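Reposting from the mailing list since nobody answered there.

I have sequence plus structure tokens for a pair of proteins and want to know whether others read the tokens the same way I do. The first protein:
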Amino acid sequence: MREAVPSFIFNGITNLTTNSYIMPKPNLIKAHILLAVSFTALAGTVKAQAQFTKQKFAFGTPKAPSGYIGVNPQTRFNDTTGYGFDFDSKVNAVKRTGGSAIGSGFITADKAFYFSVNVPEGNYKVTVTLGDSKGTSETTVKAESRRLMLLDAKTKEGELKKCSFIVNIRKPQISTGGKVSLKPREFGKLDWDNKLTLEFNDAKPCVDAVELEKVDDQITVYLAGNSTVVDQDDEPWASWGQMIPRFFKPGVAIADHAESGLTLGSFLGSHRLDKVLSVIKPGNYLFIEFGHNDQKEKGPHDGAYGSYTERFKLYISKIREKKAIPVIVTSTARRSFVDGKTVNTLGDYPAAARKVAQEENVALIDLNEMTTRLYDALGEENSKKAFVHYPANTFPGQDKPLADNTHFNSYGAYELARCVLEGVKSNHLGIEKYIIDDPDFDPSHPDPVEQFHMPPSPKNSTIKPDGN
């Protein structure tokens, strides 16, 4: 688990190099010297991050080409270099020629491995070169907290393939003041640290090169929501928010600010909307999906047509002030069947969200309606395969069955992401043109679960995410 970066490094680096100094007592001099050294090192890291524009890494080549940094199995991440293999990844270098060209060698492993680079906040175009000059390869790439970037990218023998995608990096600090109030479960989360982390996985990942470039011209789609939207860190839990990056070409960045257990009110109260408002630009989007946890609020002014409706309108107003585009997403249906049909367990909340969208002239993605059709198409028993339903001992340390009818596994989250994409298309949102060529999706005819393939990430947990 990563250590959180101390808050002082975001509160003005100049404070670390000020000439004013009060001599401490003799027994504290040593401590102050050690702190000064640590502060200076951290300040240097922040300065280096602030100057970041582009870095290129050659994996496994006998000699790195000009302009590239050579990476071999001994290249371990540390804060001094700011790049390297992370989380005790065990990798192997395969040399194919003695030259320095990309493709003369690559890095591979028989298990998932991680590569991290220290970077500042922003959007990054990541280009990976995959393939083996003497064999085939098969690679899935995730970023940060299991965001899906490439799924099952295959190369033929001798083929090198370049694939590019956009990764959004964020920090808790808010430029306008304050910071996001993180939950304890978020401490150490890859989404909130100082690194851009890539996970390489699948049957035979062959990584020849990685290029990172900071880009400021992306249309950024911010996501506000709960556990059905958030980047879930651990298997088998997953959400549509962490699957949807895989469907967009460079030109669109997905910035998932959702968190488990949140409501429209607690998203506000933890300064997450403040964070989004501090970085959102004209022409960007905010997709808003809440309801599961809001329905449990029982105050005198709460309810679907009370605080829930009013807060939706507040979000819309604030986003429009920034000349950005709000989109309402109705809550995913829970898996609840009566007489073989899915029934609504969310009360008036989906209808209230639809009403706000109509009154405020906001695009609506009716995920509640689409997921209802999806579950009905799968059927009462088979729909369990889209959720976290697993017998005991499926995962390490899991001594009891998992049976959750709210939270999705990777297959279910992937199908939901396809539903959201259909909502983007039906509303003809501007980002539609950046969707990777993909057949239209009908929730009434879901992808067969037997044909779905996504290699699991190494980390798993039996702890249910906050919220229900």
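The second protein, same order (residues first, tokens after):
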Amino acid sequence: MRIVSPEIDEYLSSLVQVSPILEHVASEGTELNLPLIDTTTGRLLETVVLLTGARDVLEIGTANGYSALWMARSLPRDGRLISIELDPNRARLARKHLEEAGFSDRASVIIGDAALMVHKVAGPFNVIFNDGDTQQYPQLLDRLVSLLRPGGVLVTNNVLLTSEVFSESGTPSLQSLNGTEAVASYNKQLASDSRLVTSFLTIRNGVSISVRKPSGQ
């Protein structure tokens, strides 16, 4: 689903200068039909990392490392980025690209199911990028928020996955949620979570930005 016209997408993307390695990884993603973010979202992630002064970043859903590259290049040399990817072949590609870009000292890729792995990583994190399996979004949220520092930012991709998200009003069990229902449920969770202040942006397939409130607020 296109939220904005292709012409606007193309114009905004044209304003972002992209490094040769990012161009290569994006082209590879297109060839392999991987679900990558676009350059506008990549620049947004880079901006969030810089704005928060992030030293610790967690990513759910690595693919071939495209979004990880956007974030890793804004981390300090002693920062860390942990990315969780279910597919071993995608993880291998991502590790290769991060090493080629000179970021293997600050970025690592863990292979496994995000629903399990998020309970094995140690926070807190300044920034979390949630871009994995949308059906897992509702069950991941509480753990992701608990891993955020006060003032930390949770960025979620695909929050306007399809137009059906707008009309989902039921509350089926988490086990029965399809992708659209899961996103609709997740968006309601974000909007009502008293620990967060959330804004929803109409970028590509929809991006939400949630800031964890300081304790006591």
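Reply #1 (J.P.):
I read it the same way you do. The chain has eight helices and seven strands.
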